[in-house]
Write a structure and sequence with these properties.
The protein is an all-alpha fold and about 425 residues long. It has a domain of about 300 residues. Helices cover about 80% and strands about 5% of the residues. Strand 1 and strand 2 form a beta hairpin. The longest helix has about 130 residues.
C-alpha cells in the first residue's frame, strides 16, 4: 500500500523514528521544569539535530527508490529554507514567553508540547497541500505569488515590533469558555481548585505558540514545495527542522548576533523560489495572457535543484557573513569607544588628582594664613592686655596722686588751723598782757 508515492511501512518507520527522537530529546533536556537549559547544552543539542538531519540526507542519497541523488538535494534545499525561516520565528516565541512571563526553566516544557502539536498539524497541512497540488497544479502559481509578497514584506519587517496579546481574539474566546488562573502554577497546564478545573497561563502560552506556528507554516510549506513536489521530501525536511527547533531556541542567545541580516537573505530566497515556481507555470501564464489579448509564448524554464541549493546556501552565508562583519565593526567601535572612555576617565582622574593637590596646597596655605592670623590676633590681644595693664597702672598712679593731693590739702588745712590757733594764742597773749 502506497501513500503519496511512498509505501506505508516507510511512513510508519519514519514517524516511529520521530517519536523515538522526541523521547530522547525530552530525556536529554530534562522533564517537568527540573532544570534550566543552558546555552552550551542547547548548542550541543543543536549540533546533534543538524547531524541527524544530515545523516537522513545521506540515507536518501543512497537508499531513496526514485532519483536518490536529486531527492537528497531537494531535502537539503527544503531543510535549509525551513531552518532559516524558523530562526525568524524563534524571535517571536521569545517575545511570547516574555509577554506571558514564562520562566526559562519551564519554556522547554511548552516548546516540547508545541513541537509535538506542530508535527501533527504540519503533517496534515503537507498531505492536504500535496493532494491539492496533485489535483490542481495551478495552485503552485498562487504559492509563487504569495512567496513573492512574503519576500518583499521581509524587507519592511520591524525587528523591534512588540507582541501585544491583551486583545488577542483566541485568548479572549478561550477565557470566555474556560477559566484561567491569574498566576502560574509551576510547570502545570491545568489545576483543580475548589472543585473546578482551571487552565494556567502556561497552557495559554502553549495555545498561542501552537497557533503562531500554524501561521508560520503558511509561509514555510509553500517555500519547500518550490524546491520539491515530493510529499515525503517536503514533510521530512519540515519535521527535521521542527525537531531541532527547541534546542535552537535556547541557543538563540549565543548565535542571534550572527543573524542580524538574516531577514534580508530570507526575503531574497523567498522571492527567488517564488519566481522559480512561476517559471514552471508558463502554460497558465500564456493562457492568461491570451485571454486578455496578449500573445506571450513564454517558454517553460526549469531551474536545476543544484542551482537552487547553491543560491540558497550562498544567500544564507552572505547574510550571516554580513551580520558577522557588522558585529565585528560594532565590537571595534565599542572597543574604541571604551578605550576613549578609559582615556577620558584616566585624564579625569589625573585632573581630579591635580585638583586634590591644588586643594591640599590651598588648604595648607589657608591653614598657614589662619595660623598667622591667629598669632596676630594673640599679639593684638597681648597688646590690648598690656595697654589695659598700663591704663590700670596709670589709673592707680592718678588715684595715688589724687590721694596725695587730698593728703596735702588736709595737711594744708591742718597747718592753716594750727596757724589760726597760734594766731589766737598770740591774740590771747596780747590781750592778757594788755590787762596786766
Amino acid at each position: 500500500m502506497n501513500i503519496m508515492g511512498m509505501p506505508l511501512w516507510a511512513w510508519i518507520v519514519f514517524y516511529a523514528l520521530v517519536l523515538l527522537m522526541l523521547a530522547l530529546d525530552l530525556k536529554m533536556f530534562g522533564r517537568k521544569g527540573q532544570h534550566e537549559v543552558g546555552v552550551k547544552e542547547a548548542l550541543q543539542m543543536t549540533g546533534v539535530w543538524i547531524g541527524v538531519s544530515m545523516l537522513f540526507a545521506v540515507g536518501i542519497y543512497f537508499f531513496y527508490p526514485v532519483q536518490p541523488h536529486e531527492k537528497a538535494m531537494e531535502f537539503l534545499a527544503g531543510y535549509l529554507i525551513e531552518k532559516s525561516l524558523s530562526m525568524d520565528n524563534l524571535f517571536v516565541f521569545l517575545m511570547l514567553f516574555s509577554f506571558f512571563g514564562v520562566e526559562r526553566k519551564y519554556q522547554h516544557e511548552v516548546l516540547f508540547w508545541g513541537i509535538l502539536g506542530a508535527l501533527v498539524l504540519r503533517s496534515i497541512f503537507i498531505f492536504a497541500g500535496a493532494a491539492m497540488v496533485e489535483r490542481f497544479d495551478w495552485v503552485l502559481g498562487l504559492f509563487g505569488l504569495f512567496l513573492l509578497y512574503t519576500g518583499f514584506k521581509m524587507f519592511s519587517h520591524n525587528d523591534e515590533q512588540q507582541v501585544n496579546l491583551a486583545d488577542n481574539i483566541l485568548i479572549r474566546v478561550f477565557k470566555r469558555f474556560f477559566p484561567v488562573t491569574r498566576q502560574m502554577r509551576g510547570e502545570k497546564f491545568f489545576v483543580r481548585e475548589y472543585g473546578v478545573t482551571l487552565a494556567t497561563p502556561l497552557f495559554v502560552a502553549l495555545l498561542v505558540i501552537e497557533t503562531t506556528d500554524v501561521a508560520f507554516a503558511v509561509d514555510s510549506i509553500p517555500a519547500v514545495f518550490s524546491v520539491s513536489h515530493d510529499p515525503f521530501i517536503v514533510l521530512t525536511s519540515n519535521i527535521f527542522t521542527i525537531l531541532g527547533l527547541r534546542a535552537l531556541y535556547f541557543a538563540l542567545a549565543a548565535i542571534a548576533q550572527y543573524f542580524k541580516y538574516l531577514k534580508y537573505g530570507l526575503g531574497i530566497i523567498l522571492m527567488f523560489v517564488g519566481v522559480k515556481m512561476l517559471l514552471g507555470m508558463n502554460d497558465y501564464i500564456n493562457a492568461l495572457a491570451s485571454y486578455v489579448g496578449i500573445e506571450l509564448n513564454m517558454p517553460r524554464i526549469e531551474i536545476p535543484i543544484m542551482v537552487s541549493l547553491s543560491v540558497i546556501i550562498g544567500l544564507l552565508m552572505a547574510s550571516m557573513l554580513l551580520s558577522y562583519l557588522n558585529t565585528d565593526k560594532l565590537a571595534e567601535v565599542s572597543a574604541r569607544t571604551n578605550e576613549g572612555s578609559d582615556k577620558s576617565d584616566e585624564a579625569l582622574a589625573k585632573t581630579k588628582e591635580n585638583a586634590d593637590k591644588v586643594a591640599d596646597v590651598s588648604a595648607r596655605a589657608n591653614a598657614g594664613s589662619e595660623k598667622r592670623a591667629d598669632d596676630s590676633e594673640r599679639k593684638n590681644e597681648l597688646r590690648f592686655e598690656v595697654a589695659d595693664g598700663s591704663a590700670k597702672r596709670n589709673a592707680m598712679r592718678f588715684e595715688v596722686a589724687e590721694r596725695s593731693a587730698r593728703g596735702n590739702e588736709v595737711r594744708l588745712g591742718l597747718a592753716d588751723t594750727s596757724a589760726r590757733k597760734n594766731e589766737n594764742s598770740f591774740v590771747f597773749a596780747d590781750m592778757s598782757a594788755s590787762e596786766k
